[in-house]
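Re: [help] complex structure
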Amino acid sequence: MASLKDLRIRITSVQSTKKITSAMKMVAASKLRRAQEAAEQARPYAQRMESMLGNLAAGAVGQDGAPALLSGTGKDGSHLVVVMTANRGLCGGFNTNIIRSARQMIRDLQAQGKSFKIFTVGTKCRDNMKREYADYMVGHFDEFGRTVSSFAEAEHISQTVRAMFDAGDFDVCTLIYANFVSAMTQNVTRQQVIPFPIPEVDEGDDAATGGGYEYEPSDTEILTDLLPRNLAIQIFRALLENGASEQGARMSAMDSASRNAGDMIDKLKMTYNRTRQAKITTELIEIISGAEAI
Amino acid sequence: MADTLQLDLVSPAKLLMSESVGMVVVPGIEGYFGVLPDHMPLLSMLRPGVVSVHAGVSDAPAKQFFVDGGFAEVNPDGCTLLVDEAIAIEDLTADNIADRQSAAEERMQSAENDIERAAAERALLVAEEMTSAMAGAAA
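Output below.
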């Protein structure tokens, strides 16, 4: 049985762990508020951009000279997987879930005999992916904001990806990140960004097929400007969603860690008091039986 | 005919404005154009300039924003403006513009290839348009 001193030391150590985890929870909660706000405010732009592009793309696809970002290279033999995680850990299953989904996707691609490359965003997935897939990693980026990412960072990633696409390094690009639903729920999402996934359109709807639109200056010119921007925007949205998800995951992880620490302290205190009581009783019995013997 | 249209002004960072307005004047790449309710569908690129929001056709602008380029999607029910950056005209200050101007000129000097030079040129154009927008607002 542990001595009283040992128990005391353990209680203090668990208490300080609890202090740390609850402080981290508070920090995550306040960061979450900012990150969530940013993610929610970025959604309208990304959604409208997507629907605008959807209208436009439906009309332009199949035409000769449609930009490659839209129609693809005509093959899907080689994939670029952009895996996005956090730079830091201690946020529950957040990083693990994203990495698991990425591995799954890579295994599927391997099974189909397709080649792939990996671009990592965030140190956590780089360190993890390096163990198994070091030969396939083509790039890395981890200098994004601690709470809220800026558009310039997304722009930077998008330029790197586009340069690789223009050089013919891959045919299809997919982002893997966690979509923020609530502090408790984050959905790992795979989103194809190159070529642009054209939404299903209703044949009868003239406006939806892009037929009704007038273009200024011309549809191809707008497309060549809009597509790269859309890529940057989708990456930006992914970064922000991921940021909010990370903070949410960390907040709930730290919340349950604090609760566990609390339970543990209660149990240890109980044992401590029992042991103390047992020791007193033993001492008393010794004194009494000593007195009786005289 | 509906007498208002839904105007959405969004930048990557946030939804700046979403309300029913009477008319909006937009800096299209081929010149300013006004959008009234029941406008025909139109997709246009935007150049740096001023977006004016009017309550009615003959009213003075209720709100004005400086935008530095983007896209406009117009359909009969409304108008969506996707812009990189929008600043309310009253928030423009001469200092701010001077900063941008000198930053753009510096970029121009240090540009190493055509892409950088084009970006710097655009930044310079934005600064110039800002100056004239502010002059217009003051007048």
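The beta strands of chain B are 5-10, 15-21, 23-28, 31-35, 42-46, 49-54, 61-67, 70-75, 78-83, 86-88.
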